[in-house]
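TA notes. Do not distribute before section.
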Amino acid sequence: MGEVPGGKSTEDYLKELSYAGLVKRYGGKNVKKEILDRLEYELGVIEKTGFASYFLIVPDFVNWAKSQNIIVGPG
């Protein structure tokens, strides 16, 4: 992964992408509090462990592999 857009921290960018994914998956309105709480919990764990950049770069690898017709799995 290259630079994080807009000079954001990796944690802030991951949070931004995560909320965009949440809207895409569950719709933008009336997302259950349980789901929002779980997202915040997971992001908190990622931030505490310092893995935000890892979670940002893995999709780059997967997308590149797919563009090269390389099969990728859930692992």
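Switch to the second chain here.
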Amino acid sequence: MKIGVCIKQVPSRESELSLGADGTWVGEAESYDSSEPDNYALEAGLQLKEQHGGEVVAILLGPAAASEVVKTALAKGADRAIHLQEEAAERLDPLQVASTLAAVAREEQFDLILTGLQSDDQGHGQTGVLLAELLDIAHCTVVVEIRLEGDRVQVKRELEGGWSQQAALSLPAVLTVQSGINSPRYATFKGIIAARKKAIRGLAAGDLLPADLPASQTLLQL
């Protein structure tokens, strides 16, 4: 079982934020952390690996400074990581992010890809859905329970009004994980030491974007 987990660096919740010089986004934060929903996705991937074997690959699109978030994922138990480096990652829209992730996913041939339901900063909640569409594979959102059964994954997804829905998907598939599905683990000292020996593959995110992909400004006007 080869599981890819998409993670993202965001300003930590303790940081005092202010507008950047161009007035389009926040300036440099005091500290950064991984997006909280992604922590639940990573924990779900690690638990599936412990139950069924295989490997967990953490994938992050972000600036070089996001390497600390990558290392934390490795310290928690991810086997290796792929860092798609882009200094202006916050300016990419969900389609651009998903297109970049899809280029890596096609190469890696993951059995299962997990993402947080939405990011803590922009909160679009669209990257996982678009990723599945670009890969032409099954997907399910707001997932609160995951069970692997052979070449299929059984999931429970949260609906409105306290209702839920059961679904079965053929692998490969993309799942966007709801916060609260589990209790994310902390990085242990042993895990931090072990992470130093794990591979981090660095790629330029700009090299993976399709040349014919519309610019963000165009997408926002549609």
